[in-house]
Amino acid sequence: MRPPRAGAGAAALAAAALLVTALPAASASARSAPVASPHRLTVAGGETQPVFSRADAVTQTVNIETTADSDHDGVRDRVQLRIMRPKETDTAGLKVPTIMEPSPYWAGINDVPNHPVDIGDARARALTTTQRNLAEMFPGYYDNYFLPRGYAVADLDSIGTGGSTGCPTSGDRSEQAGAKAAVDWLNGRARGWAPDGTPVAATWSTGNVGMIGQSYDGTLPNMAAASGVEGLKAIVPIAGISSWYDYYRAGGGVVAPGGYQGEDLDVLAKAVLTRKDPEVCQKVIDQIEATQDRETGDYGKVWAERDYVGQARNVHAAVMVVHGLNDWNVKLKNSVQWWDALKKAGVPRKLWLHQGNHSTPFRWRVEEWLRQTLHWFDRYLYGIRNGIDKEPRVDIEHADGTWETAKDWPVPGTRTVPVHLDAGQAGQPGTLDLRAGAGAAQSFTDAGKTRTAEDLLANEGRADPNRLAYLTGTLDRPLRIDGTPSMSLRASLDGRSPYLTALLVDYGTDSRPTGARVDTGQKVCYGQSVPGDEGCTTRQALAMQTAPYKIITRSWLDARNRKSFSRTDPIAPGRAYAFRWDLQPTDYTVKAGHRLGVILLSTDHDYTLRYPAGTVVTTRTGVSRIDLPLARGGREALG
User: Fold this and answer.
1) pTM above the 0.85 mark?
2) Arithmetic mean of pLDDT, 430-437
3) Catalytic: 358?
């Protein structure tokens, strides 16, 4: 959840000639402030128009009382809200809604070592913190773009960070109360004070609030909405968490967010602890470390307090869910299970699935991103009937950079197809078949920390003592996997590692998006300029990499949690059990001429705890299978 590295893994792009474009007049302002404000909202073409001056905006800082006392000092925590709004809210009685980005990152972040992950290694040390770039998380366009259209924009320091009091608790009910309190203050239900202690009310506020943000900043809107707070009308959670268990755990085991091996709830809380007098939070964070359980990885009380999926029925806000198909930091399951729960709860919703990693598509689909987010907030914060709720619910970006719209996701017509893991003529590699073959026992020995998944899935046409491989033949037509695959495995384990890892792999040399982005050199101007901020950005493109394979999706199971993620049941060495678990959701098309593969491992070097090498995993082919959610024509593509 800590911010991603800027441009990590990006391929070099030839420098383009600097181009400058302005957004179409129907959806963007002139870059300078308007000559004169009409002192009232202007709507044309179904959207608010940029008639207010960003340069003349009023700023305000408010410290808001919450209902939480996370630092246990006997005083309710306060969160700090910094607001920018049209001057007409002071001079002409204008009342406006607010678009807010709540964040624990506004005051920066601390360097905190991660937990060691090499089990049983006396020399194992805490892992160093991955380098981060906070600037990549904050696109910085809200004031230039939304304020001139009649919105207040606001930054909220989450509890325990920046100008707020209390202690950061990595997603529990105290942090939820902090985000909720800001909405309550904007609706006259919570007390607030100026920095000098003067009581202050949001007399300029309509009470309608929207939230937007990426990563932790996208999680806090989910948390606020799940509280059921009145007045929160619309949110845009980008790569947001819906259950912290599915961020730091998976399948009953300790599993790291991609790029942050060894991080956990306590590490993140220490990293964002930027309030004044941080030492008051030591006991709170010690308690988080003591209860997060890095031994078993079981789902328990500490995780139930950080799980919002079951609270979707409380949500009153319209939710525009956004997630990268190449995001292995906040994995896609977090958005998909939120999307599904919102559907069951009847919540108005939209979904964007893009080809980026842990990122916001603002900079490579600028015009459409601004159009849809503006219309989303206009519709639900101003009540403008612009048709956004009648458009296709889903936007999906394909690997070639083209976009598709759909009524729902998975796309209509998707069907689950069981594909069996069968032994090959020489045993390994095996095959993937629509019909189950004769059962055979096949084994591998876990390599522990000595080999990565990328190393193990290479040379798929040969047997490898540290993994099992199962492959289709060469596909004669495209195969679209669209949803959540699941593994059913009959297997035994004999050794210390409890992990079963499955990788779904596209084999075939091709150029594919990595999830990173590169600047194109094209300058795009979207909003009013002020000194030091020209209201422009540089358009990005997806970074591509040519490689012989790509991991489509992956998953992990702690074999001791075969019955429940909440309970550890010991396994008898060498005894076969039935295991079933889901892979991470995906939307991926395997091209004609490629092959689809399933790779079975135990330790996944960059994600799981790493036990000593030597665990022997034996599977039973024929009865073992992967269930694939395939779009129309998928079964036929498999033969």
Assistant:
1) yes
2) 96
3) yes
